[in-house]
Amino acid sequence: MTLAEPRHARPRHFLMCPPTHFDVTYAINAWMDPGKPVDRALALLQWERLRDLYLDLGHRVDLIDPLPGLPDMVYAANGATVVDGKALGARFRNPERAAEGPAYLEWLRERVPQAAEAGEVNEGEGDFLVAGPWLLAGTGFRSSRAAHAEAQEFFGRPVIGLELVDERYYHLDTALAVLTDDLVAYYPGAFSPGSRAVLERLFPDAVLADAADATVFGLNAVSDGRHVVLPAAATGLAGRLRERGFEPVGVDLSELLKGGGSVKCCTLELRWGR
């Protein structure tokens, strides 16, 4: 592959949830501090800019109504996994987020031919990322190993389990981004030695992020195959993506990072068919 290999965008279909009730009133990850005030108006403005960017790039965005008392519902990626016209709802580990799973599943059941409630702890696309024929599946802090087997049976796709070992990167989508069907970017320090070896074997040409990019949530990104929407502060990663033929598009979601989420966390992809 040459550094200037052309990339091609494919229109995507996303589900998002406005941060109407966003706040940090509890701490269930290393980024949350209830002592730091949240500017909800700024969070909404930043979220709207992300939504508008998706629309400008030619993608479709559907919205789910935010529910009072669920400040983390803005992180739509955690609500479910939708692949091949099937939706597997989330079952959250923390009781503070438990009601989000049924809310997202109710929305999906009206639109997806086959939707099911998870029996095991899984936090949707936070820990399940589609890469070609595979589901890359994170565990270590949130989704259980048993959820990997459940997802494989439900979707009929091979699931590749990956162990997260740094509490700052508690979901797979905070440490790894799928760029194309056969290319990912990831931060090696977030994974166990065995999982790093798996990633090196599956994706020998992967884009590697350093600690500076990871700590600004640079890997919590969304790619359409050409454009990679990521936190604007991840300048090093943006440069490496540009060298590989992608067009990085930086956005500021600093208020939503106070809850431990950024671009990908706010974005659930709806994959209606194969």
Give a structural overview.
The chain has one domain (13-269): L-arginine/glycine Amidinotransferase, Chain A, CATH 3.75.10.10. It has helices at 40-56, 100-109, 145-155, 193-202, 211-215, 235-243, 254-257, and strands at residues 13-16, 60-63, 80-83, 86-89, 114-116, 128-131, 134-139, 159-163, 176-180, 183-186, 207-208, 222-223, 227-231, 247-251, 268-269. Helices cover 24% and strands 22% of the residues. The strands form five sheets. The chain has a three-stranded mixed sheet, covered by helices on one side. Strand 12 (222-223) and strand 13 (227-231) form a beta hairpin. By secondary structure, the protein is an alpha/beta fold. It is built from seven helices and 15 strands. The longest helix has 17 residues, at 40-56. The radius of gyration is 17 Å and the shape is globular.
| Strand content bin | 15-25%
Number of domains: 1
Q: Report helical residue fraction.
A: 10-25%
* SS element count, helices: 7
Poorly predicted segments: none
Give the overall shape, derived from the CA principal axes. globular
Give the number of DSSP strands. Answer: 15
- Strand and helix order: EHEEEHEEEHEEEHEHEEHEHE
**What's the CATH C level?**
Alpha Beta
Q: What would CATH call the architecture?
A: 5-stranded Propeller
Largest sheet: 3 strands, mixed
* Name given to the CATH homologous superfamily: L-arginine/glycine Amidinotransferase, Chain A
How do the strands line up in the largest sheet? Answer: 2-1-15
What value does the Rg take, in angstroms? 17 Å
Structural class: alpha/beta
Protein name: Amidinotransferase
